[in-house]
Amino acid sequence: MKRISLLSATAVFLIAASVFLITTTFSISTASANGNGKLDEILDNMQKNAASITTIYAKMEQLKRDLSIGGKPEQYSGEIFFKHAGKNNDKVRINYFVPKGQTIWIAGDQIILYQASIKQAIFTSRRSAASKGDEFAFVATPYASVPELKRQYNIVYSGEEQSMAKLDLTPKGKSSVKQLTLWVDQSSWLPMKYQIVEANSNQTTFILSGVKKNIVISDGMFKANLPGDTKKVDK
User: Fold this and answer.
1) Rounded CA gap, 172 and 136, in Å?
2) E strands of the chain, at which residues?
3) Is 224 domain-assigned?
4) In a domain, 229, yes or no
5) Nearest CA to 116 among 88, 96, 92?
6) Bridge partner residues of 56 (DSSP)
7) What domain count does the chain have?
8) For the segment 118-169, what is each residue's pLDDT rounded down to a tens digit?
9) In whole angstroms, what is the distance from residue 80 CA to residue 95 CA?
């Protein structure tokens, strides 16, 4: 049976965080630094949209291609719940349909990955993952300062695909992430597709659909009510 790794858990956080947090911060950090009028327009619209978001629900498809083993990409699917709860306290829940019985909760810095088939819950944090060399460590501080984001990333508008604006984000310094690409819907101004290319050229792609904004999502959705016989592991 497929199991979602801690690496995937951190990657999924990137999706939920960038919908509200990272896109808003990027827009502030790049609009004054980049003369591309189209890029400024896209980022400005993303920022305005993000400021109005309190909750998000979306279905998710995830494709991961490991070039070292070749073959078809691994495929996962699920649904994401996001709730804005104040700086550093935003909440995320991911229910996986494939693989079945796996759930991720993220509250602020904490990440909990539950695997029902083995009755195990792994507890970790974004900061812990970053300190261990996780290739998605750049999401460990989504509230990084504007000067820090300018120092770390180049952001380029590279045209349109299927009526979505394509933005390429490239780390300026040493990183195990080669590039992050966002495809932004130009009616909702939300990123609907993400692709992460690692330094070894492995690729992970996320596609969101059925997005619903500002619906009622109870706080109970984000509480990890684990069965009593769950084995808890700290990472």
Assistant:
1) 15
2) 55-65, 74-83, 91-98, 102-107, 110-115, 120-125, 153-161, 164-171, 177-185, 191-198, 203-213, 231-234
3) no
4) no
5) 96
6) 82, 213
7) 1
8) 999 999 887 776 565 444 444 444 434 434 555 677 888 999 998 899 988 8
9) 7
| Domain span holding position 128 | 6-218
Q: Is the peptide bond before 99 cis (omega within 30 degrees of 0)?
A: yes
The answer as to whether 225 is a domain residue is no
This prediction's pTM: 0.80
CA-nearest of 57, 53, 43 to 165 is 43
Alpha-carbon distance values, 66 to 71, 72, 124, 137, 198 (Å): 8, 9, 24, 19, 10
Check which CATH number belongs to the domain holding 191 and give it.
2.50.20.10
The span from the CA of 17 to the CA of 139, in Å, is 8
In a domain, 235, yes or no: no
Q: CA-to-CA distance for 18 and 194, rounded, in angstroms?
A: 10
